Amino acid sequence: MRVTINLLDSARYGEPTSRRLRTVLAQAARSPAWLHFDQGRHASAQRHWRTALHSAHSADGPDLGAGVLSDLAYSATWFGHPSEAVEILSLARTRTRHATARSLLDVRRARALAVPQDDVGVACALNDAEHQLERGRAQSAPPWVSWTSSADLAFDAGRCWLDLEDPRRATAALEEGLSLLAPERERTRAIMLTYRAHAAVAGRDVDAAVSDTRTALDTALGDGRFTVPRPGAQHSVGFTRTPQGRNGRSRPVLVRTSAADARACVNSLPGRRTGWADRTTNA
Questions:
Q1: What DSSP string runs through 80-104?
Q2: Are 13 and 134 within one domain?
Q3: Alpha-helical runs (H) found in 137-279
Q4: What is the pLDDT of residue 173?
Q5: Same domain? 81 vs 95
Q6: Three-class SS state of 266
Q7: Based on the domain organization, do 278 and 173 belong to the same domain?
Q8: 69-106 pLDDT, tens per residue?
Q9: How many domains does the structure of the chain reveal?
Q10: 281 and 186: one domain?
Q11: Which residues on adjacent β-strands are paired with residue 239?
Q12: pLDDT in tens, 172-231
């Protein structure tokens, strides 16, 4: 970021180069924003997001600006302000040009609507996201959203149904996400398994929960980007955050597993392709 800022401040360049530099700065500022957010340095995170938003606007990049707004909305959801998140996402959606970008905004709208238990709104948002993702396949997605896939949609759908206290739908969505996820995305796989374990606990299937938590921890540690925390450390690989609920508290999900072996017991998905609002596990 500092190199890019120095170039913008001191170098001589034309308008195309200026837009490119500001695009690079907007993309670069988003990473430390999330890093600081996860570290609890929220004021610093907000400053980086403002830098990213201003840079995207200066670069005439409405889709990238919408992506930054979606980050701000996501953080509002984590803090227990879903109505603010939905408002931000609605504004961001009017500024997008690419269908894949709209899909990501719709997914995050679904995550926000799940907090106040708006199951109808969640289903509509997920269906919108799926439709936009399909439309986006015919276009070249902007780099900042090119990672979005059907696996990610299934992942977020599972989290939504989990927040809506529907573990069967959550398990179905997460199961599909795991089957679609690229092999190299081990970190995402670990989180998906954690959420599926949470769904198993909600469904009172302790054996499946233990199996998934063991696999999630093994996957996370094998990825190399997680470490076992020191005693008394504030952050632990054993927990994953969920948005703050109506009681104002975040609901941590235990990932650390017992030593006992257990069998996985997860319902299969229906064979037919349907909209997310209709996908359930077999009874």
A1: T-HHHHHHHHHHHHTT---HHHHHH
A2: no
A3: 150-163, 167-180, 186-202, 206-223
A4: 97
A5: yes
A6: coil
A7: yes
A8: 889 998 999 888 999 999 999 988 988 889 999 999 99
A9: 3
A10: yes
A11: 254
A12: 999 999 999 999 999 899 999 999 999 999 999 999 999 999 999 998 887 555 444 433
